[in-house]
């Protein structure tokens, strides 16, 4: 019984130091007594945004370059977004903005627009994926020929193009170079041993 009490006490307090650090940090921005005015969900929403992604909010901050907002391609885009699940919309936000939630209100965007730019440099357009610039909340799209193609390319991009930088690729490349180098060194050592044995004979 004593063990159970000790184990329970440990689990209840094992993160006290980390929680205190978070609390101290937040207190430098928001007075701690004010935090008691909000529920955990309300506080999470204010800090992180809502897990639900309303397209009306995203549309309200959208601007367009190289195409008119009433063009069929733009209409297809928003129709595809409407058909996306909330999880897919979250993946889309990660693809174009590096985050998975929207701010709560237009004011919380702080003047940052969601930019959709359509370029004619992709030829033929249906053979290319959309591009994103997360620092600028920018989506570059080819001038796709139809909605099914747009949907296919966009879905592929949000599911398989998740990296927002090249750090991982650099680490993989470096690891590969080190492996090749180690292999070459080992082979070189074996060759030297073989030569030494031959000379000894």
UniProtKB/TrEMBL annotation:
GO terms for molecular function: ubiquitin protein ligase activity. GO terms for cellular component: cytoplasm. The keyword Ribosomal protein does not apply. Residues 1-167 form the HECT domain. The active site is at 135 (glycyl thioester intermediate). Its EC number is 2.3.2.26. Coiled coil: none annotated. It catalyses: S-ubiquitinyl-[E2 ubiquitin-conjugating enzyme]-L-cysteine + [acceptor protein]-L-lysine = [E2 ubiquitin-conjugating enzyme]-L-cysteine + N(6)-ubiquitinyl-[acceptor protein]-L-lysine. Keywords: Cytoplasm, Phosphoprotein, Repeat, Transferase, Ubl conjugation pathway. Its main location: cytoplasm. Pathway: Protein modification; protein ubiquitination. This is HECT-type E3 ubiquitin transferase. Pfam families: HECT. It is found in: Cytoplasm. GO terms for biological process: regulation of signal transduction. InterPro entries: HECT_dom, Hect_E3_ubiquitin_ligase, HECTD3. It comes from the Eukaryota.
């Amino acid at each position: 019984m004593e063990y159970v009490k000790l184990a329970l006490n440990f689990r209840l307090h094992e993160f006290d130091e980390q929680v205190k650090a978070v609390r101290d940090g937040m207190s430098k921005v928001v007075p701690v007594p004010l935090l008691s005015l909000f529920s955990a969900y309300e506080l999470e929403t204010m800090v992180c945004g809502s897990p639900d992604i309303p397209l009306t909010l995203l549309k309200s901050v959208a601007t367009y370059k190289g195409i008119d907002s009433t063009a069929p391609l733009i209409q297809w885009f928003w129709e595809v977004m409407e058909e996306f699940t909330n999880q897919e919309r979250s993946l889309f936000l990660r693809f174009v903005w590096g985050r998975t939630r929207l701010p709560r209100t237009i004011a919380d965007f702080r003047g940052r627009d969601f930019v959709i730019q359509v370029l004619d440099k992709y030829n033929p357009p249906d053979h290319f994926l959309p591009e994103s610039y997360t620092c600028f909340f920018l989506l570059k799209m080819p001038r796709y020929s139809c909605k099914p193609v747009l949907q296919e390319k966009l879905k592929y991009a949000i599911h398989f193009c998740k990296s927002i930088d090249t750090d991982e690729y650099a680490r993989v490349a470096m690891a590969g170079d080190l492996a090749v180098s180690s292999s070459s060194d080992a082979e070189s050592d074996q060759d030297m041993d073989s030569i030494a044995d031959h000379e000894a004979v």
